[in-house]
Design a protein that fits this description.
alpha/beta
Length: 215
């Protein structure tokens, strides 16, 4: 059976109103979304935090990308809200193995994010327990940035070393580069402004999905 690559629209905002409107815009066509969470610790910037998100009706399956220095403090709230996947940054947790076990005990998938410059050996101990390795294509915390081409080599190296794990890419993904990222080995793409900032979000999503699955 041919592998299907996933495209996940990503929401990064500090405004409850913008969050609500974006979710309403994505609901008719997106099967899964990513919600970015920043608290101005690991990366600059702030978004809606889980306490505020609890007040929103999240109608789609979703993953949380925790760009925070202490992801553990948000886990219980995320689990209670029905989050399907929690992704944290490798440098944010002293004992990532224990944290992943805690996530998975709650029947939530676990993923680890890394920057292209990070050595992939840092993830070696997690390949048998993590569901996803995510490579950042941009500096964490802002949408609309240009894709870092170093991420292509990181994706290829991860897929070669850990062929059984899902490799995702977050940041800077566009219709002009998604095929190159797919050829490097990416299975999943978190896409922010190229979808949510488009005049026709559904058309942008469908174009990206088609391109990702045509290589």
């Amino acid at each position: 059976m041919e592998k299907i690559r996933e495209v996940l629209p990503a929401i990064l905002t500090s405004s409850a109103r913008v969050f609500r409107l974006t979710l309403e815009k994505l609901a008719p066509f997106a099967p899964f979304v990513q919600i970015d969470i920043l608290d101005n610790t690991l990366a600059e910037g702030r978004t809606l935090l889980p306490l505020a998100l609890k007040r929103e009706l999240i109608s789609l399956p979703w993953e949380a990308h925790l760009m925070v220095a202490r992801p553990q403090k948000y886990m219980k709230d995320l689990a209670a809200m029905g989050c399907k996947r929690i992704i944290f940054h490798v440098q944010a947790v002293a004992d990532g193995f224990e944290f992943i076990q805690d996530i998975r005990r709650r029947n939530i998938e676990a993923g680890i994010a890394m920057n292209p410059e990070d050595p992939i050996v840092e993830l070696a101990g997690y390949s048998q327990i993590a569901n996803t390795f995510m490579v950042m294509g941009v500096v964490p915390g802002k949408q609309g940035q240009r894709f870092n081409p170093k991420a292509l080599a990181t994706v290829a190296a991860l897929k070669k070393r850990y062929p059984g794990i899902v490799v995702s890419v977050d940041g800077g993904v566009r219709k002009t580069n998604i095929q190159a990222i797919a050829r490097a080995g990416a299975d999943r793409f978190a896409v922010g402004s190229a979808i949510t900032g488009s005049p026709n979000a559904q058309s942008a999503y469908e174009k990206l999905y088609t391109l990702a699955n045509s290589v």
